[in-house]
Structure formats: C-alpha cells, structure tokens
Write a structure and sequence with these properties.
Strand content: 5-15%
Structural class: alpha+beta
Order of helices and strands: HHEHEHHHHHHHHHHHHEHEEE
Helix content: 55-70%
Shape: flat
Protein name: TIGR02677 family protein
Pfam families: DUF2397
Number of helices: 16
InterPro entries: CHP02677
CATH architecture of the largest domain: Up-down Bundle
CATH topology of the largest domain: Methane Monooxygenase Hydroxylase, Chain G, domain 1
CATH class of the largest domain: Mainly Alpha
Number of domains: 4
Largest sheet: 4 strands, antiparallel
Organism: Lentzea flava
Length: 504
C-alpha cells in the first residue's frame, strides 16, 4: 500500500509554513545546493518555529536530517542538536506532484497555431530522413522526441482552452465585464486558428500519410532509448526495447488519428475545428444575452436577486412571511384534495379564509390519501386526449425537412466536372450542404496536391475537387455572396446506379 505521509503537511494548521519550507528546498535543489541549515531558510518566521517545522517534515518523510559537525568547536556544541536537512526522494516526488497539480489548475490553455507550423517543420525533416537508405538514429530520435513534445503541448493546450471557452459560454467562473471586453479578440482568435487548422492541418495530414516507413524510424528511436537502459540481462534489455517500441507506436498512432481522418472516424483536428466553429455563434449568443441584461430586460436570476434584496430589507419576520406569500402564491392547506363528503360540508357551511386554523372545523381526509399519498377520485376517469392531429403535424414537418434535404442533395449532384463559378444561386439548405462538402474536400487535401477525392462521413456522396490556376468563384445565396478561388468540382451520388464515365 502506498505511503502518503509526505502529503500530510497539506492538512495541518501550519500548512502554509510547511509549503514555504519545502519551496525553499526545491529552489535550493535547482541551484544544486544539497543541504540546508535552519538559518539558511529565508522565511518570515523565527528560528525556533522553522526548526520545529523542519522536525515535523522529517517525521513525515519529506526531509532527511544529518548531524551537522562542521562547526563543532566545543563539547557543548557537540552535544547540542544541529542538523543538515535535504530533500528525500519521497519529499521531492510530493513537491513535483503538487507543482503539476497547481499548473493544471491554473492553465488557461491556448490554440497554438505556431505549434502547427513547428509540427510541419519537424515532419518535413523526418520525411527526408525516412527517404534515406541509412538515416542517422540520433537525428531520428531527436526529431521524434521534439515532434511528440510539440504535439503533446498542442493537444493539451487545445483541450484546456476549449474547456475554459465552454465555461465562458456558460458564464461559469467568468467575469462578465472582462468577457464583454475581450469578446471581439476571442472571436478573431478562433477564426484565425480555424483558418490555420484547415490549411496547416491538411499539410500535416499529407506529410504523416507520406511517411510510409514510419515503423523503421520508430524502431530506431526505441533501440536508441534501450541503449541507455541500466546494465542487466539481455532479456531485460529486450523487454525495455519492446516497451519503448510499443510506446512510440502508440504516440505515432495518436498523431496520425489527430490529423488524418478514417472512414466513420473523423480526425481530432476536424472535431476541434467543428467545436471552434460552433463556439463562435455560441459566443455571439452570450454577448446578445449580456446586452439584453444591460439594456434592462429582466430574467429569472435578476428577479431572484431583487427578491433576495427585498427579504434582506424587510423590517420584521411577519413582513417576510407576507412577501413570501405574495411572491410564490402559497395559501392555506385547505387546498388539499379531500373526499366528496368534506367538500359538500364546506359548500353548505363555508369557512372564511381568514379563520385561524385552530378555530376552524377539522378536515376529514380520505384514509387512502393518508396511507399511500394518492387519492382515488370517484366518478368516471379522465377522457383520453387524442394526439393524432399533433402527430400528423410532426410527421409532415419531418417529411418536409427530409424532402428539402434530399432536393438539396439532388441539386448539388453534378453530371460532369463543373467549375465553382458555374454553381449559380443556392438556397440556404443547399448552401449549408455545399459548404460542408467543400470543407471536407479542402480538409482532406494534402500539401502541393491539386486533385482530391473524398467521401462524406455517411458514405453517400463522393467529392472530387481540382484546383485551377486562376479565376474567382462566386456563389450567391439569399444571405449574401460566397467568394473564393475557383475549382473544378464533381459531386457523385454513391447511392444511385453506377455512374457513367464522364469526360472532362
């Protein structure tokens, strides 16, 4: 069972002092100072308090104490307890864990477009080594380590940033004034990263796919790491090599799945791009809600805050009760459901609502209600509501939406290679589908690749896209005009019959 004594100083009354003492030892170790005396610690505490704290940390296993005999000049000095303190392995591990914990809590995260460029540079260098007959193992190992480190930073920071962005959208742990002040910069930041992720991410995917001999490079890196293993039996060295190779294969697979999409499994970069694109309208909705609040429009949270202020300003408890009844409409318990005989008696001999409960005649409640909490009302059951009309309306609406989507698919399916400038005018449904198909094709295009062929995630449409050297395409919609470099586009319906061979 693991020993957690080195963490005991976190739950004591003087936890701040103990953490400050351990911080001094960690900083001393960074300066290559091994031992410290109590008077060497620069703390806002007297020497006796510091010495006592050092003794407690020694008992918990965070520090080790060695007798300090370097300054003994008399017999009294020899018998007086003097110690040199240094970090134990357990204490150092505990401080590293606490530092990692603090960094994880304080991480804001970022969408690192620069990291994408660095990954491209390292992949290009790795591709050149992969094309050599006998690449240098040292260069391969260093490139792979740098590539994995940069990619790990990118993935971790992207995850942290999207988490903090979601908290901002939900207005959790966020300063409303600060959010309103930096919203424009945040939206611009997201748009720039999406653009870099589309272009650079496609280049990374192409480079990863182009490195066909990645296994040979991974074996070199694992073998070089196994050479640094401690001396031992040949079987131990072999096991170390196999563990290292399995780890490098896992890292390379993670890098590939992050940027390269597979059938039915979109890449993490594609999912991140979709989340970032969806965050922009969500941020705009938050801004709109904040502006509505600032303009004076009320919401439920503002109503409850106002009601709480009224309760705090109430002069006495009776006023609070009146305010409660006025706000929530709670009245006497006579509104409980009772049996028919009691209701008839109340109709014949009504009791005023102002009558005190103690003075009013008792209410006879049904034994069934008292026993089970439910009351079986006499008479015929409630009439069953016919929902046929509502179900028909929903079915018609679903059929109409499916028909609109199918018409948009048929409208976009081409019967020959077509320039984007010849697409013409599209309605909103057709334009949404067209934009998604175009984005999938551009995301799948590798570096220096003029032609690309890909399929949609459901496998029903194939998109063939060829870049042209000149021309600007314009696609008109009711909401505006979409402009971009002209391409040759071909969209094929894979669910239809086998298409004929088309000639360009």
């Amino acid at each position: 069972m693991p020993d957690f004594q080195p963490f005991a100083h976190l739950t004591t009354p003087n936890a701040d002092l103990y953490r400050a003492v351990m911080g001094e030892f960690v900083r001393a170790k960074r300066r290559f100072v091994v031992h410290l005396r109590p008077e060497d610690l620069e703390l806002d505490a007297d020497l006796a308090t510091v010495t006592e704290a050092l003794g407690r940390l020694k008992d918990w296993g965070n520090l080790r104490a060695d007798p300090d005999t370097s300054r003994v000049t008399t017999v009294e000095d020899f018998h007086r307890a003097r110690f040199l303190y240094q970090l134990t392995p357990a204490g150092e591990a505990a401080e590293q864990a606490l530092q990692t914990f603090d960094e994880a809590l304080g991480r804001r995260g970022a969408l690192q477009a620069v990291a994408l460029t660095d990954i491209v540079t390292q992949l290009r260098a790795l591709l050149e080594l992969a094309q050599q007959d006998e690449p240098d193992p040292a260069k391969v190992h260093l490139l792979l380590r740098g590539l994995v480190g940069r990619f790990t930073d990118l993935a971790n920071n992207a995850q942290a940033f999207m988490g903090s962005l979601q908290r901002s959208i939900d207005l959790h742990d966020v300063d409303v004034d600060a959010f309103r002040a930096y919203k424009d910069q945040l939206i611009d930041y997201l748009e720039r990263f999406i653009k870099d992720l589309v272009t650079t991410g496609a280049e990374i995917a192409g480079l990863v796919t182009e490195i066909n001999d990645a296994e040979r490079l991974l074996v070199m890196a694992a073998a070089r790491e196994a050479e640094d293993a401690a001396p031992g039996e040949d079987q131990d060295r072999k096991n170390e090599f196999e563990r290292g190779l399995a780890l490098w294969r896992e890292r390379w697979l993670g890098l590939r799945q992050w940027f390269v999409s597979e059938p039915q499994h979109p890449s993490q970069a594609k999912l991140l791009r979709a989340r970032a694109r969806a965050a922009i309208p969500a941020l705009l909705q938050v801004v709109s809600a904040l502006n509505e609040r600032r303009a004076g429009r009320s919401d439920r949270s503002a109503d409850f805050r106002t009601l709480a202020r009224w309760f705090a300003q109430a002069p006495d408890e009776a006023t609070m009760h009146r305010l409660w009844r006025a706000a929530f409409g709670l009245s006497s318990a006579r509104h409980l459901t009772v049996d028919a005989d009691t209701l008839n008696e109340r109709d014949e001999q009504p009791v005023a609502a102002s009558t005190p409960w103690f003075d009013a005649p008792p209410l006879l409640i049904s034994p069934q209600l008292r026993k089970t909490g439910s009351y079986e009302r006499r008479g015929k059951p409630n009439k069953i509501v016919d929902r046929t009309e509502q179900r028909q309306i929903l079915a018609e609406r679903a059929a109409r939406q499916a028909e609109e989507t199918e018409l948009a698919r048929k409208r976009l399916v081409t019967h020959r290679p077509t320039r984007l400038s010849e697409v013409g005018r599209l309605d909103p449904a057709e334009f949404r589908l067209f934009l998604g198909l175009l984005g999938d094709a551009l995301a799948a295009r590798g570096p220096h690749q003029r032609e690309i062929s890909t399929t949609t995630s459901d496998g029903t449409l194939e998109i063939r896209l060829t870049a042209l050297d000149e021309g600007v395409a314009e696609v008109h919609t009711p909401d505006g005009t979409f402009r971009g470099p002209d391409h040759l586009l071909e969209i094929i319906d894979l669910t239809a019959a086998e298409p004929e061979e088309w000639s360009a």
